[in-house]
Amino acid sequence: MINIALPKGRLGEKVYQRLASAGYASKDILSDTRKLVFTSDDGSVSYFWVKPSDVAIYVEKGAADIGVVGKDILLEYKPDVYEILDLDMGKCKMAVAAKNGYVDDKSSTLKVATKFINIAKDYYEKQNRQIELIKLHGSIELAPILGMSDVIVDIVETGKTLKENDLSVIADICYISTRLIANKASYKFKKDEVDTIKERLK
Ligand code: PRP
Asked: 41-44 long-range contacts, Cβ below 8 Å, gap at least 24?
């Protein structure tokens, strides 16, 4: 049996639909229940719903053989897993944004608010730019509005959140999408089963 960690929420449900169409349906999974573990009707896979940012931990530790995670999480936490397929879903970008009309004073330390501390650090290190990081856990857009930071490093999907808050992108960092990841030992010892799921998902 292959254990699959799915991210709780809309994206995870879409990924489950794709797995169901690929032959791994589980009739109970979308029912209104607090259950966290489900077996596919054919008995070949077991699904767990986990917090999206925890998927990579379950896979790295081997509690799940495979999982579904955003590239943002892979770049931020660099888990020791194999990235085996771009699912071409959850497409967005990581970007730097600031208040409309913001002018950067390159001689001063830049205050950067973000959830993605390591992505921001890597990006500004490459630019040789001195920064002060402010770690937030959500509603990052508030930081420049309230004058707490000069810029934010965050995910931009439709751009609606920035637009409605008079902010705009000043630089793109990278492309983000949903990836299928595999535990390294599972990919060695259960390679055929994992590859079958990967090929059917393609
Ligand atoms: C993400 C991101 C932006 C928003 C971008 O937030 O942090 O706030 O989506 O989407 P848009 O470009 O389509 O407007 P999320 O919904 O994950 O909530 P958060 O405030 O907890 O980060």
From this structure: 43/1, 44/1, 44/2, 44/193
Identify the burial level of 7 via C-beta atoms within 10 angstroms of its C-beta, where 0-12 means exposed, 13-18 middle and 19 or more buried: buried
- Most informative mutation of 73, 156, 165 for ligand 1 (most atoms within 8 A of CB): 156
Residue nearest to atom 15 of ligand 1 (CA): 138
Q: For 109-120, what is each residue's pLDDT tens digit?
A: 999 999 999 999
Vertex 118 angle, CA 11 and 76, to 5°: 25
pLDDT for position 103 = 94
Q: Which two tokens stand for residue 93?
A: 């970008």
Instruction: Give the C-alpha distances (Å, rounded to integers) separating 5 from 16, 59, 61, 122, 123.
Output: 10, 7, 12, 28, 29
Ligand 1 site, residue 161, Cβ cutoff 6 A = yes
Is the pTM value of this prediction over 0.70?
yes
What percentage of the chain reaches a pLDDT higher than 90?
Answer: 93
- 3 beta partners: 46
